[in-house]
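Incident review: delayed structure delivery

Summary: a single-chain prediction request sat in the queue longer than the usual turnaround. Root cause was a stuck worker, restarted by the on-call engineer. No data loss occurred. The affected request and its eventual output are reproduced below so the record is complete for anyone auditing the incident later.

Affected input:
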Amino acid sequence: MKRLTAIFLTLLLSVLSTGLVHAAGYDDESIQLLAVDKLSTRNGPGTKYRETGTFDLRGKYVTVLTCEEDEGGTCWVECEFPWRDELIRVYTGLKRFECEDASEIFYALPWYFDAKALRTVPARYGPGEEYAAYDQLTMDKGQKVSFLRSEDEWAQVEWTTTKQSYRVWVPLDAIDCPNLYQ
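Output delivered after worker restart:
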């Protein structure tokens, strides 16, 4: 609990000092972990999110950016790696990596500001054109989403349908988020 309080205070000071939520406490520090199993992945931290595939990276070091717990307390890590000449960011269970001490992984606390899509745009696996686009998945104009964080000129957003949840990246100027600059 003390760690969560300290993280929250750090995030709050960051927001107050900049006036803009940038990367919602994500400090651009990552670590490399050895994959010891195939990475069965999702586009968010939990089984309620869309499956994004299984990647056989056993025996390779993978960049791990953040960790989050799902409703059941399972630790999911956000990892990034090149795949077919593009980058992707996905979530997988920490158990798929050789990791004795997870305290080095940044614990993520997304913001969840209400936002709305200003135009239809393709959903991406990460913050930029160098990241792969999801096949046929878009954020549609007028769609209500939750703003989670920003990185450069990109926003990570989330929405839930009756079937599943989606967590994706879209251009920051494609959403209207009234609370973002307050």
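Verification: The chain has two domains: 27-107, 113-176.
Action items: add queue-age alerting; document worker restart procedure.
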